[in-house]
Amino acid sequence: MSSESVELRERILEYLAFLSSSASGLFVEPKEYGPLRCIDAMKRFIDLVLSLGIIKDEELLKDLQEMEKELDKGVVLLMYSAEEFAKFVSDINKELARKVKQSLNI
After folding, report:
1. pTM given for the model
2. What top-level branch of life does the organism fall under (predicted)?
């Protein structure tokens, strides 16, 4: 197995382990951690996809890079205000819905 294949395998398994451990933690963690873990999973997914270099669409690549920066900022909000974090999550949903509609020409 090539070193590139080993790295890809490790990155994918690491991501799945994060999701699995997040699911386990949600049974005992405060309810605000659920949305936080989902935002963190989005960040990790974008990082994984970008590191794999599989995105050829320049517009999508730019959008993902910008979203990754926004998600980095948003994760910190929960430490200061649950309300601001909730607004951030809502805004991310609206922005993604807008991008999907735009992509589908709806």
Report:
1. 0.86
2. Archaea
